[in-house]
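As the next step, I selected for study a record pairing a protein sequence with its backbone structure tokens, which the following lines show:
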Amino acid sequence: MDDELTKYEKARIIGSRSLQLASGAPPLLEVSESSTPMQIAVLELERGVIPLVVVR
């Protein structure tokens, strides 16, 4: 079974995590002060540390 996320799942996860970060959630990676919530969410997804689960 393929564990790859679809582009729709990636978009939903990045959007949800960006909203959390914009609302004050702490980033799970070391990031610069100039990073946007969207950039942080993408980095977290790439490194596999986002605390979200996809249920199909």
Remarks:
- The mean pLDDT is 91.
- Residues 12 and 54 are 10 Å apart (CA to CA).
